[in-house]
Amino acid sequence: MNLKQTVNRKLKGHADQTELNLTAVMNVFLILIPFLLLTAVFVKITVLELSLPRISKDTSRTVMEKPASIILNILLIKETGFQLKSPDLTFAPIDTGQTDYKWDELAKQLDTIKKTHPESNEIIISPENTIKYDTIIGVMDRCREAGLPNISISG
Amino acid sequence: MNYPNIKSGTRRSRSATFTLRLTSMIDMMTILLVFLLKSYDAEGQIVTITDDLRLPESTSQLLPRVTSVISITSNWILIDGRPVETLQTIKADEQLLIPSLRQELSNLRQITEGIGEMSESMDGFQGNISIQSDRDITFDLLKRILITCADVGYNNMLLTVMQKE
């Protein structure tokens, strides 16, 4: 028997079946995954800032600042829809759709305000008494996205 | 010849070095690992949410700060987890200010101011307050709570929301 041939055949067969030894990697994964699962955060909490004008005099010094021009944007939220008011612009009221408010149209009208008055940052939101908190937050989001970050709420 | 002998020999050695095929399992684990690393947050939560509270969703990116918390659930108003008043009693009352909430808030303000006087390193009274409110609360109630906060001197309200993806 040719020994060289047999050894060669044996080696060749072995080389075909080479496999990585992944057991160590698996061990690391098995430790990492439960650890990461424990520290994973699936709901992230953020805040929306809302400042009211100071009522009581003793809280701090009041800064008197006169803006160059006041552009008063007012947004009414009703059960039946939105109504925007801005100087030099007239907007048709946005009626509520079948199920939800028409957010896209509100965003469009807010964009028009920002285009006409690029320097304005303020908007006053005036919801009706029956409006839900969720809706108010939604409106505040749309206003901020449209470039009107200074939001006041008026009752 | 020796052929059958060699064959039986290889069979024996194969069974001795038997290995699990782990490649597909490694694939799965890698995907899991990447997903979990993505949702990993080293900062931890500084806000605790009261039970039975469904916060509204928002696109805001502002991170919460450490302040006192007013929680408005569907039945109760709580300050830092202590129940103050039921919503039923508040709704029955006609006036804008909520007396019991006002009382609690002014106590809280006095304590904060006291701490601020005692130690330089503490900030004292800043006028910040977090408001966690259920998404179904109506504006008339929210308005009265905001007015009560402002009346005591808490003018910077942080409305706690859940971040939208």
Question: What's the layout of helices and strands?
Answer:
The complex is a heterodimer of chains A (155) and B (165).
Chain A: H1 3-16, H2 23-39, E1 45-51, E2 74-78, E3 81-86, E4 89-90, E5 94-95, H3 103-116, E6 122-127, H4 133-145, E7 150-153
Parallel strand pairs in A: 2-6, 6-7
Antiparallel strand pairs in A: 2-3, 3-4, 3-5
Chain B: H1 3-16, H2 23-38, E1 57-58, E2 68-72, E3 76-79, E4 82-86, H3 87-92, H4 99-118, E5 128-133, H5 139-152, E6 156-163
Parallel strand pairs in B: 1-6, 2-5, 5-6
Antiparallel strand pairs in B: 2-3, 3-4
Helix pairs in contact in B: 4-5
Characterise this structure.
The complex is a heterodimer of chains A (155) and B (165). Chain A is built from 4 helices and 7 strands, in the order H-H-E-E-E-E-E-H-E-H-E. Chain A has 155 residues and is of the alpha/beta class. Chain A has a domain at 74-153: Nucleotidyltransferase, domain 5, CATH 3.30.420. In chain A, strands 2, 3, 4, 5, 6 and 7 form a 6-stranded mixed beta sheet that branches. In chain A, helix 3 (103-116) runs parallel beside helix 4 (133-145). The radius of gyration of chain A is 32 Å and the shape is elongated. The termini of chain A are far apart. The mean pLDDT of chain A is 79. With 165 residues, chain B is an alpha/beta fold. Chain B has 2 domains: 3-38, no CATH class; 57-163, Nucleotidyltransferase, domain 5 (2-Layer Sandwich). In chain B, strands 1-6-5-2-3-4 form a 6-stranded mixed beta sheet. In chain B, helix 4 (99-118) packs parallel to helix 5 (139-152). The radius of gyration of chain B is 30 Å and the shape is elongated. The relative contact order of chain B is 0.16. The mean pLDDT of chain B is 82. The interface between A and B is large, with 54 and 61 residues. Strand 1 of chain A pairs antiparallel with strand 6 of chain B, so a sheet runs across the interface.
